[in-house]
Amino acid sequence: MGGGDIEVTAIELNPEIAKIYQDFFPNDKVIVADAHEYLLEHFQEFDFIWTSPPCPTHSRVRKVTTHQNPPIYPDMKLYEEILLLEGYFKGKWVVENVISWYEPLIKPYVFREHYYWSNFVIDGKKHKKRHIDGTKEELQNNLEIDISKYQGIDKIKALRNCVEPKAGLEIFNMAFKNKQITLI
Q1: Which domains does the chain have, with CATH numbers?
Q2: Looking at beta carbons, which pairs linking 10-15 to residues 24 or more positions away fall under 8 Å?
């Protein structure tokens, strides 16, 4: 499995974010749609699925800022996706989310200060911390991307929500131990 024979389909609800993704990855197929619904309707079409459902309702930050954010129900799409993939999907899969303010209902792996649920072992014992704090410039440097030319989005939020490319690659390589992939 080399870098040239991997087909990637990315699903993004926000058209502005989808445009940025397409600019950075012009060979990937980008679909503007609700990823949760798309997953349910199309999961059987893929060999590997990485999903990252919305995290704000699970976040420790939201919990400690209840003086600014009133209590709300946690978005259970996270667990819906884990259970769907665990019960029905035949390929390799990963569900990524923040470390929650509550004890997870399904035990995750911890890797770079994030939770990951998967049907393969994710070894996070010797890995550095995530870099989600800092200025826009610091976040861009840590992610090795530049989104300064884009308008119409909260850039700090977008950068904090990015999967770190190197972390994603490490996890992908854990899923396919005998078939190492490199970033180009």
Answers
A1: 3-121+165-175 (3.40.50.150)
A2: 11/35, 11/38, 11/39, 14/153
